[in-house]
Amino acid sequence: MPPQRVTRLLEAANQIILGKDHELRLALTCAIAGGHLLIEDVPGVGKTTLAHVMARLIGLQFQRIQFTSDLLPADILGVSVFDRDTNAFRFSPGPIFAQLILADEINRATPKTQSALLEAMEEHQVTADGQTFALPAPFFVIATQNPAEQIGTFALPESQLDRFLMRIRLGYPDRGAERALLMGEDRRGLLARREAVICPQDLLDLQQAARQIIATDRLIDYLYALITATRQHAELTAGLSPRAGLALLSAARAWALIHGRDYVLPEDVQAMFIHVAGHRLHLAGDGRPAPPQLLQAIIQAVPLI
User: Helix or strand or coil: residue 106?
Assistant: First the structure.
């Protein structure tokens, strides 16, 4: 059975975000794997609400950063200010110093501002004026992104995309869920009355437990075969990197954990493959992200070992 902390969290989250159990499991998997989540979808489908739900129910310190074209790196990281009492500059931390960061509409900011997140997401630290400042633990970034064809967006560079463990889409709710949403209480009011069901230390414990999930030699061979297939695919500009392979393994371990297993199955790797690989692979002709159909074809072409 899944850990009780996972069950309680998912049950509470499903009462607020209706009809999106699978997507909530993916978001929780990403957090347990110690990665960051990119949600790409049209406005109004619940991307921001999902971030608020995760922060509230886990009891995480939360900061929302609204990305715009005039946002500067210092607006995210912080700035040094002169302290007259000490006659020296003092670093004033920016909103990045929180446990859960919502980077809202991240692709509306310029590439320079987007790059301000690179060190924070990879190293869990910020360097300013030659000093290094550690970020709190756990540290989890959920970024939302509007479709690239919308006006006023800047495509995320590959180095930035690679910092996200997973990319998901929420999509429109089904008829029953949307009908209940229309007839029910406002989600924000409902969330405001909810208490945390687990604590940040619980999330750190789940992250530690996920790292202990068993991946056999045969499972590693299968995962490597999938990675190799992307590198040899004629329709892709380049295959998955070693870092992407580690990300896929981490996600598969966390997926196994929330489904109550202490070992990884090939099905766990397959379930995570599209979400981990989709934003890292691009078509050779026009550079567009690899479509899910192509990724599914790669899965079907690689035999189980």
Answer: helix
| 152: region left, alpha or beta (phi > 0 left; psi from -120 to 50 alpha) | left
- Residue 262 vs residues 1, 37, 62, 286, 305: alpha-carbon distances, Å: 10, 24, 31, 41, 20
Give the helix/strand (H/E) hosting 28.
helix 21-32
Q: Which domains does the chain have, with CATH numbers?
A: 1-211 (3.40.50.300), 212-305 (1.10.8.80)
Residues 32 and 206 sit within 8 Å (Cβ to Cβ): yes
Helix axes 21-32, 242-258, angle to 10 degrees: 120
- Please report the pLDDT score of residue 262 as a whole number: 94
Place of tokens 């869990």: 124
pTM of the model: 0.92
Contacts of 41 (CB under 8 A, 6+ apart): 47, 144, 146, 147, 169, 170, 171
Q: At what angle do helices 217-231 and 266-277 cross, to 10 degrees?
A: 30
pLDDT at 298 exceeding the cut of 90: yes
Kindly report, residue by residue over 176-207, the tens digit of the pLDDT: 888 888 887 777 888 888 899 999 999 999 99
Listed range (147-161, 222-236, 261-275) with the worst mean pLDDT: 147-161
Tokens representing residue 280 in the block = 């890292």
Helices 266-277/242-258 angle, 10° precision: 130
Integer Cα distance of 95 and 92 in angstroms: 10
106, 67 contact by CB (below 8 A):
yes
Cα(49)–Cα(32) distance, integer angstroms = 19
In the block, tokens 């971030």 appear at: 51
pLDDT digits (tens, 9 = 90+) for 1-33: 678 999 999 999 999 998 899 999 999 999 999
What average pLDDT does the segment 50-71 reach? 93
Rounded Cα distance between 224 and 227, Å, is 5
> Residue 208 is encoded by which pair of tokens?
């530690």
